[in-house]
Design a protein that fits this description.
The complex is a heterodimer. Helices cover 37% and strands 14% of the residues of chain A. Chain A is of the alpha/beta class. Chain B folds into three domains: 127 residues, Sufe protein. Chain: A (Alpha-Beta Complex); 67 residues, BFD-like [2Fe-2S]-binding domain (Arc Repressor Mutant, subunit A, Orthogonal Bundle); 75 residues, GMP Synthetase, Chain A, domain 3 (2-Layer Sandwich), CATH 3.30.300.130. Chain B has a three-stranded antiparallel β-sheet with strand order 1-2-3. In chain B, a hairpin with a 2-residue loop joins strand 6 and strand 7. Chain B starts with 5 loop residues before the first helix and ends with a strand. The chains are: A alpha/beta, B alpha+beta. At the A-B interface, helix 9 and helix 10 of A face helix 1, strand 1, strand 2, strand 3 and helix 2 of B.
Chain lengths: 419, 287
């Protein structure tokens, strides 16, 4: 059976060069970067291998990776903190900023954030913070005027994602950063989905904190980066040893750090391909599916979108059933339907956009990568229409049938109130 | 991905009896697009009153389609009286079990069957009856539905109720109401259990007990009269101490998180100990 992986917004295949780069640090270079002896030193400066093969390697490795990660986003190496992943980066940014500004009790975010931000904000809401979750329009875009009006003197932090994991919709973060700074506030941006897919230059924007995840850019799981602009107040979230200049305690995940550095460098190399070949394949897939499956629609702002993502709703069928049939053909993707989430609630992103329920439950996210081939896309375009057709034959709902869906009683899940 | 049994997958990939019946004798429709799954069940009876033909249409996930398919296979050839004895657990068992969070699919199957039978018996006038107050407004689940799944499946937590009928899975605003229903149902259940206990003659000793005798008798009474019933429900209790007429116990297993443990404490544990050991005993729970 084929194995067609179109779920790259969930996680990605590790690049062989990344694996090769990190492996020695799981084997012979197992020193602790904080140790004074040569084993630990092995890890500190990867560059200087010939001079001190048995010396200073751990710390060298860390600094080299820091430089690689910084380069990808136009930052300085000392603005990079290594964390255990996107979720820790988000937690560190939000908790860290709030702790450093204890007099301010207001947070602003959007309704479509990843749980790593959304759940943190909602937790803080139960601990005495005021929370504003900005709504999005039908295309999934924010109203920047609303953002501007929401910021008050009490606002400690604005945290808004760079690009949405479900729809791929890209927010105008440069503008957001300017608005936030004009009001003398701080801006954290969860860029987990954007890094490696869109060119980012933090010297050209005013973003204060930015989260990156290793496994979303062909690195391993368990490693991430938090960019913290010089001069940004941040109270440490993880407390313990003096690692990461005292900003993130815990023995460095040296192999993971080497890997994310390598992954960042490779992401730079493949950036052009992401925005040309991958984008073209995505567009081909999208056009093909819309053409061959009736009652299908794209969710999100197609003019401002990640090059690898398309979120398509196949109306009147349910997402998990679609995924199961796709899986039987070896195609992997994901869905915003309630049944796939483990809860009963369908995608909060699509609901925030006001996507009708007929469409939310049948939404499928296809996310491509540089490993996606043209044959794979052709295969999916060929195999999807029969899958959808088959499920529609089982379903009693359809746009064509005269008997409009007669729900025996109204079951209308409520939208989140603005807070 | 969900951990479905081979039988669930088999019924999902090859569903039986999909389609519609023209002029069915009974038709039942439950669920809706909004809540993510819906099932329409139609059947035709033969002269002897047996279900000869049955078809379904389902909008929903893998286990919803599999449950619907399984249901049609289960009721084919049965009389309505036989068919209406089928519970949601029977549907789940037929499929070799369903993931806990997917039990509502089997409940939906049973509801559709019930609605279809009712539709037949009322001569096609009733399409679906759902008396009672709506408790969960997010998913439109009534008090009667919640009460029934709780009773029939012996549910003890709000989470379980959500898994079985979706109630409480949205805004959570109805959680206190659901807890109330669970408490009431469990109290009925406990009362029933008490009735079911083997009748025993009061064996209370006539002469005063020494301390060690009292403790031993308390332990024996708990072991023989109380714990078996609790264990049957996945719970248990432990005797911690006896101080004068105060008996201190601790709940274990399901009892520890049970909503009605206070009731069990007073109405079951204390009542039994007073009956068998001494009238003046006071039972307390060690928190």
């Amino acid at each position: 059976m084929k194995n067609i992986y179109l779920d790259n917004n969930a996680t990605t295949q590790i690049d062989q060069h990344v694996l090769a780069a990190m492996t020695p640090y799981l084997k012979e270079f197992y020193g602790n970067a904080s140790s004074m002896h040569h084993f630990g030193g092995q890890l500190r400066h990867r560059i200087d291998q010939s001079l001190h093969y048995y010396g200073r390697r751990a710390q060298q490795a860390l600094e080299a990776s820091r430089a690689q990660a910084a380069k990808l986003i136009g930052a300085q190496p000392d603005e990079i903190i290594f964390t255990s992943g996107g979720t820790e980066s988000d937690n560190t940014a939000i908790h860290g900023v709030l702790a450093s500004r204890p007099d301010k009790k207001h947070i602003i975010t959007s309704r479509v954030e990843h749980p790593a931000v959304r759940a943190v904000c909602r937790l803080l809401q139960t601990r005495g913070y005021r929370l504003t979750e900005l709504p999005v329009d039908a295309l999934g875009q924010l109203d920047l005027k609303q953002l501007e009006e929401a910021i008050t003197e009490d606002t400690a932090l604005v945290t808004i994602m760079y690009a949405n994991n479900e729809t791929g919709v890209v927010f105008p973060v440069d503008q957001i950063a300017r608005i936030v700074h004009a009001k003398d506030c701080l801006f954290h941006c969860d860029a987990v989905q954007a890094v490696g897919k869109l060119p980012i230059d933090l010297q050209q924007t005013e973003i204060d904190l930015l989260s990156i995840s290793g496994h979303k850019l062909h690195g391993p799981k368990g490693i991430g980066v938090l960019y913290v602009r010089r001069g940004t107040p941040l109270t440490p979230f993880m407390v313990g040893g003096h690692q990461e200049s005292g900003r993130r305690a815990g023995t460095e995940n040296v192999a993971g750090i080497v890997a994310i550095g390598q992954a960042c460098e490779l992401a730079q190399t493949y950036m052009a391909e992401e925005n040309s070949r991958v984008r073209r394949l995505r567009d081909k897939l999208e056009t093909g599916l819309l053409k061959h499956c009736l009652d299908a629609r794209v969710n999100g702002d197609t003019a401002h979108r990640l090059p690898n993502t398309t979120n398509i709703s196949f109306e009147f069928v349910e997402g998990e059933a679609i995924l199961l049939l796709m899986d039987s053909l070896g195609i992997a993707a994901s869905s915003g339907s309630a049944c796939t989430s483990g809860s009963l609630e369908p995608s909060h992103v699509l609901r925030a956009m006001g996507v009708p329920f007929t469409a939310v439950h049948g939404s499928i996210r296809f996310s491509l990568s540089r490993y996606t081939t043209e044959e794979e896309v052709d295969f999916v375009i060929r195999e999807m229409p029969p899958i959808i057709q088959r499920l529609r034959e089982i379903s009693m709902f359809s746009a064509g049938k005269n008997s409009a869906p007669q729900a025996p009683y109204e079951r209308k899940p409520q939208l989140d109130p603005i807070r | 991905m969900w951990d479905y049994t081979e039988k669930v997958k088999e019924h999902f990939f090859n569903p039986r009896n999909v389609g519609i019946i023209e002029n069915p004798d009974g038709v039942g429709e439950v669920g809706s697009l909004a809540c993510g799954d819906a099932l329409k069940l139609m059947f035709k009876l033969d002269a002897a009153g047996r279900i000869t033909n049955v078809k379904f249409q389902t909008f929903g996930c893998g286990s919803a389609i599999a449950s619907s398919s399984a249901l049609t296979e289960m009721i084919k050839g049965k009389t309505l009286e036989e068919a209406e004895k089928i519970t949601n657990q029977d549907i789940a068992d037929f499929l070799g079990g369903l993931p806990e969070q997917k039990m509502h699919c089997s409940v939906m199957g049973r509801e559709a069957l019930e609605a279809a039978i009712e539709n037949y018996r009322t001569g096609g006038t009733v399409r679906h009856s759902l008396e009672g107050k709506v408790i969960c407004t997010c998913f439109g689940v009534t008090e009667n539905e919640i009460r029934r799944v709780t009773r029939e499946n012996n549910l003890k937590t709000v989470e379980e109720v959500t898994n079985y009928c979706k109630a409480g899975g949205g805004c959570r605003g109805c959680h206190p109401d659901i807890e109330n229903i669970i408490r009431q149902v469990q109290q009925e259940h406990a009362r029933q259990q008490q009735k079911d206990l083997p009748p025993v003659k009061p064996a209370r000793p006539q002469k005063p007990l020494t301390n060690i005798e009292k403790i031993q008798l308390v332990q024996k009474t708990l072991d023989q009269q109380v714990r078996p019933a609790l264990q049957a429900d996945g719970g248990d209790l432990e005797l911690i101490d006896v101080e004068g007429n105060r008996v201190i116990i601790a709940f274990r297993g399901m009892c520890a998180k049970c909503q009605v443990s206070e009731f069990t404490l007073a109405e079951v544990v204390q009542a039994r100990l007073r009956e068998f050991v001494s009238e003046d005993l006071i039972v307390e729970e060690k928190k």
